[in-house]
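Supplementary material to the annual report.
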Amino acid sequence: MYKVIAVPVDLAHADRLPKALETAARLAKAYDATLYYVGATTETPSSVAHTPEEFRGKLERFAAERGAALGIEARAKPLVSLDPAVDLDRDLLKAFGEIDADLVVMASHVPGIRDHLISSNAGWIASHAKISVFVVR
Amino acid sequence: MPKKILLPIDLTSPDVWRHAIDAAEDLARRYGATLAVLWVAPPAAADPATLPETYLPVLHDFVADRFGDDITVEAHVRADWGDPVREICHAAAEVGADLIVMGTHMPQADETLDHSNAAQVALQAGCSVWVVR
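Predicted assembly:
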């Protein structure tokens, strides 16, 4: 039913494996879909990475580890947000389009870029996306 | 994964709900979840007590016709007094659903906001919501 599933992830807290990540992984396995971990960073250094390149490497390693552990095809989709306070939700929508996602699984509030105290709002995404959105609470 | 799935449908426009029904049925089958089908219907008469008599037989027919015996399905009817989003969220709490699966019309243009009930339920529900497009 679904081929490409996207799940926004906060690398600073991904080790806790919140419900959204688990739900996304289960659905990817059930539908034999590719799971994209979508992570947002900025041009400026954060607690996760000093540069967008370092962030990409970390996200790719995370996806590879999760994919191997879960037995699913997992990939990384890093995005650089110039102004996450304004654009994060819109940047996420654009990223979902770039990977041709047909389903997004996300917590009702995704921390996103922790250092900037910005969160993405699943309600906004659910209202604006053209694809299916699974809001996990 | 879900134990009880609330599936609001409107039997007057089943096409809108086709994908949602498929998705909910598939989840229910995979995870052994109970499917609670809900019809938020306009009150047929001033007395809402007559609502179940009017709509439940139709909903039961639909449920019996649409779903196989391998999943547990409940049929629920609630009166639509102008705020179906509220009725759906309340129904989810009442039946103990941990997931709502809802169909919606697709936004047409890039900047079009989906004002559908599904998007509103995604905002307001106390449990997980799957907006199926």
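Helices of chain B lie at 14-31, 51-66, 84-95, 117-124.
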